[in-house]
Structures are given as C-alpha cells and as structure tokens.
Amino acid sequence: MNQICRKIAAACLAGLAVCVTAACADGTETGKNLIQQNKKEEKVVNLFGPMEKSDPDAENTARTAFDQTVAMAEEKLGLTVEYRTYTAENYKEKTYDDVTLERVRAGMDDLYLLNPDTIQVLGLEGKLLDLSGLDSAKNLREIVKTANTVDGKLAAIPQEVVAHGLFINKDMFDKYHLKLPQTPEDFLECCRVFQENGIETPVGANRWWLENFVFAQAYADLYNGGNTQAEIDALNSGKSRYSSYMRPGFEFLQTLIDRGYIDAEKAYTYEAIEGEGPDFLAQKTPVVMAYWGAANTDTSYGSPDFELQVIGFPSSLGQMPVVSMTGYGICTDAKNLEAAKETLDTVLSDEALQVYCETNRVISPSKNVNVDCIPALQPLKDKIEENVYVLGSNARMKVEQWGNTCLIVRKLLQGASVDACMAEFDRLQDESLAE
Asked: Who contacts 152 (Cβ-Cβ below 8 Å, separation ≥6)?
C-alpha cells in the first residue's frame, strides 16, 4: 500500500511539473489563470470503503460491477470519484466499523459504505443525510426502506439485498432419503441421521453467521404475522423483551452444540467460508451457511462437485431467508454534498442497478430491477419475492441486532449459558431504554 501511495504521489508531482513548465513557457498571466480555472471546475467526490478502485481487467466481479456504476456517474456528471480505502494494516486494531464511525463524525469524506450497526448509530446521531428525496429512493423495495430508516429518515441505501441461507449438499440429503428441513425439529432430525451414518459434525459453522439460526426463529412471526411495527414499538418501549424472542434460537444452538452437530470450538475460531468451506466442498459436511453471493463465486461455493441448494433457515413458518444490508450513506457535513447526492443517485438508478445486479447476479434494492439467478438460489429468491423473510438488521429497533447478536452467540460458543446470553440482551435493552 505504501508503494502504491508513493507511486501516486510521484505521478501527481510529475503532472504538476508539466503544468508549471507549460505556465513558465507561456510567460503570461493567461497560463496561470487557465490552471486555476481548471482546478475550480474539477468536481471530486470522496468515497470511503473497504475496496480500492479495481483494475479494468480485474477478476473480482463485485468490485468490477461497482466500478462500472461509478464510471457511469463520473461520465454523466463530469466528476471524479476518489476511493479512500480501509486496510487493516493501516488501522492496526481498529475494525472497519470503528474507522467509519470516526471518519463520518469528523466529516472526512462524502460517501461511505456502511454496515448495519454503524448506519443505526450514525443515523441516530444525525450524521447521515436523509436520502428519501433522491429520485432512486422512489423505486426501493419496502424491505430496504424498513431496514435502513433511522428516526424517520432513510439513512442509507444498498446496491444489493444480501440474503443469507443454508447451503445444502442435495446429493448427501438424497443419499439418506432426507427432505430439506422446514422447521427446527426437521433440521435436528436430519443432523441425527447424518451423524448416525458416520458424519461426525453435520453442520459446518463459523464465528460470524450462526446468528442467522437465531433470527429465523426469533422473528419469523414478527416479520410475517402482519403486526410488525406494533411488535417493534413494544420492544422499543420495553413492553416486550428481546430475550423472549431470542431464547428459542439460542436454545436451538445449544442443542446443536450439546449433540455435537456443531463443533463450538472450531466455529469460534473459523473465519467465514475459509474455515468450514473446504469440508463442505469435499462432501464431508452436508450443511453450511453463507450469503447469496457465495453461490455465484467460484472461489466460494460457485463450482461444487455436487448439486447445491440454498434454502432458508428453519423456523416455525418454514424455510426463512435472513436479510441484512450494508448501505451507502452521505455525511451531513460532506464537503461536496450536492455532488455526492448526484453521484449516489446515479449509482442507485435503475439503469446502474441493472448493470450491477446482472454482473453480480444479486437481488436488487429497486423493485423495478429483476435478475435471473442460478438454479441453486431459486428457493431463496422465491421466498424473498413472496415477501417471506426476516431482517437481521433493522435500524428501527433501538437495540442493534446484527452485531450484538453475533457477539452474544460467540459467548454461547465459549461456554456461556443460554440464561447468561438472555441476561445480556436484557442489559442491552435496559441501556437503550435509559437513553
């Protein structure tokens, strides 16, 4: 990274030298004025995110798709989007979320790619612009508005709806004449059969995504029972307890651990896909969990030697997708505010989203953009198109969901009791009520 920075600096200095030489050769004030005028006319929008601008020939599809939409904005608006990039090496012990919080609060950039928990925090602090006035916001699916509305304001908008599901080795299920699980009881029975047939650990897990089992069971009725806002209001007021919703999911995880269907020690140390992925691809493990895009990527689960099916997590209402969203937000103190709004509006236009979603084969946040998916993902897509899902992140809930639940699941993996985990949810809720 330091070498890259030095090269860029050298290139800029070389360019400046050319300009200075030209001005001196002219020998008049005209040359100087032209340089000053060009500087004034140049429009720049600063974007902070986890990725650098990719090479045009790069193989990373997600980066290339985003860069394509940025290029559309640059051409249409006559500006330049400068990428400012997070790297763990530069920020040492600070996470991406830590750094984005600091940068937004300090007004260091214009546009930001934000995770759900930071969207909620910064939205409540009034640090993110209300994006509901953008033309592109009029086309958003309700699920997107619900997840990213903070204190009545649309704080962020994603380029894709991220759905999490169970990745199933259908061949292994067929071998033992097992139907794909619908309920928690179905899932436990499948695990029992696999284990009795020599598959020691049926579920490959990592330290990031086990909370999806919890969300599916905790919020199946809340999001699909026709009384969503009233239930959220009861949670926000303290009339209902988050621990009451969460307990069944945590008891289910504890059962998976107690019966050896999940190796808690490995799950706590495994990184997503890197840890459990090799055993799944080698057909030693019949079930893992991942996000939609992992089924499209050859480096993840896009080219298995078996029939892959991606389904929702088990719940009382059947297979349930869990949806979370990152989102692009604009700092209220952005130095290039109007240009940032125009840029984001172009990047999130139906035209740009069509390019992005066709390239990545993902679900669009716009209700006007629909992209075909691979057969393995069709069960998950069907559920979402039917508006059957739960949100793993919802900015309308006072207690942030995705990050907090992930951390408390890790406590369970380290040996904490279900009761202790529920006490942690109660503590978080009590803190939110005291604010």
From this structure: none
14: left (phi over 0), alpha (psi -120 to 50) or beta: alpha
Q: At what angle do helices 2-26 and 29-41 cross, to 10 degrees?
A: 140
Q: What is the largest CA-CA distance in the chain?
A: 88
Q: Tokens standing for 425?
A: 């949810």
Token pair in block for residue 10: 């050298």
- C-alpha distances out from residue 87 to 50, 95, 96, 103, Å: 7, 9, 8, 14
* Number of residues assigned to the chain: 435
Residue range 72-117, pLDDT digits in tens: 999 999 999 999 987 655 666 778 888 999 999 999 999 999 988 8
Give 290's strand partners: 165
Q: How many whole angstroms separate alpha carbon 146 and alpha carbon 129?
A: 17
Cβ contact 210:263 at 8 Å: no
Coarse DSSP helix, strand, coil percentages of the chain, rounded to the nearest 5 percent: 50, 15, 35
Q: What sign has the CA pseudo-torsion 138, 143, 144, 148?
A: positive
Residue range 163-189, pLDDT digits in tens: 999 999 999 999 999 999 999 999 999
How far apart CA 51 and CA 46 sit, in angstroms, is 13
Query: Exposure pattern of 91-123 as b/e (b: 16+ CB <10 Å)?
Result: eeeeebbebbbebbeeebbbbbbbbbbbbbbbb
Instruction: Name the residue with tokens 């069907």.
Output: 382
How far is residue 155 CA from its own chain's centroid?
A: 15
Helix (H, G, I), strand (E, B) or coil at 116: helix
Phi, psi (rounded to 5 degrees) for 82: -95, 125
Instruction: Convert the pLDDT of each residue in 268-295 to its tens digit.
Output: 998 888 889 999 999 999 999 999 988 9
pTM of the model: 0.78
> Is the torsion defined by CA of 352, 355, 360, 364 positive or negative?
positive
DSSP 398-433: SS--HHHHHHHHHHHHTT--HHHHHHHHHHHHHHHH
